Amino acid sequence: MSAIIDDKVVAGAKSANIVKEDPIVALTERVNALYLFRDHYFENHSIEEAIKKNQDVEKEMKDTINKFDECKGYEIDGSRAKYYYLKGKALNVTERFIPQAEELLTKAVKLEPNLVEAWNELGECYWKNDDIQTAKNCFVGALRHGKNKVSLRNLSMVLRQETICSDEQRIENIQKGVESAKEAVSLDATDGVSWAVLGNAYLSSFFTIAQNPAVLRLCMSAYAQAEKDVIAKSSPDLFHNKAVASRYQEEYSLALESFDRAMQLDPTWERPRNKKDELLQYLKDVQNAINNKGRVKPKKLYQMIRALDVKHLGPYKGGSFTSGQETIKLDLVSLKDLSVGVNPEKVIFGKVICWIEDCVPFTFCLVDEEKICIAVTVYNLAKGRGVAVGDSVAIPEPFVIHQKFSYLNNDFDFKSIRVETPVIMVVNGRKLGREKEVSAKLYTFKKHD
Prior knowledge:
By secondary structure, this protein is α+β, with helices and mostly antiparallel strands. 52% of the residues lie in helices and 14% in strands. Strand 6 (362-367) and strand 7 (373-378) form a beta hairpin. Helix 7 packs parallel to helix 9 (149-161), helix 8 runs antiparallel to helix 9 (149-161) and helix 9 (149-161) packs antiparallel against helix 10 (167-187). The protein is elongated and about 90 Å long.
């Protein structure tokens, strides 16, 4: 009997503790559980359930908001700022903009200007509502109250999206964005979301400031770090942006796989599907153009090859050319003699037999006097400045890539020459001028931008 009485006493004590429990503590735990549900969704659900994720998160959010209604009245009990912040954060868990979240978070920062977490959430609200400048002000304001990785990485992203007046300001924003992302990573090297943002910052830098392959490698390395984190690797944004980077590295197989992963993680998102279809069509067009030598009739092809004249090598005709203070020797070789990778001290020469429509990079097919056909991808070519069918083109020290892989029911096996800048090419005996060159514009993507 005494044991039963003791159990009742203990149970009664527990009930009393629940009644007296600080509601802010309880609501904090509830909101943390909501974000844990969202961020770790695929640890408890199969990838086939991805289509339900947004709906499930919305349901959890509504259940969480109901808990706030149960605690109604506590917002006036000395913790109003925290209460408004927590409720605003709960509403902010979804990808869509919710005006009530903005209202609550605005109240929170007015009541407690040092509440960094509330500033970050408010910045997210403005961001979702396409108010980039106000979002930036929130993240900058949060950093005044305390350095933190969330403000830094979000600032990195909004700097790239801010409306700017000049190319100089855009470059400055990109540079600041890289530094902010690097600082976020330095505060927590295990945070995959910060690594993903750093990867995006490097990718933007590559296309805006300097076409340095080392920067693109830093980008891919950052994405690889991001994938080690369970939260970051659940983001379709990460794989979409990784696919974009892979495409520009001409790692097409990896790009297709990454677009597929983005689609799996969010089956409702059309952008990765559209980009994957565009890439697949591009690869088919290149493969068909090479296999069929641009569908040029044999007689016409023969005439084009006969018209090849070494005088069209221009500055590369003499067996060497000058780069800065250095004189580089060049041997004219056949396309079949090229190796995968860089071919130092070599120059190739051929006729343009076709080009692929509406694509970046500008892509054309070149055939040499031995009727060997190869694709050429030219980056940073100004719009409307491409070569024409029948042009004679010389390329020094060509960088060759061999694409050989299968995807779905498609087999790809072709070689291409990657040209980072058009100014190294000689067309019809003349080297292309700087007016032919323009920086590519590439934008990473965040779904609620």
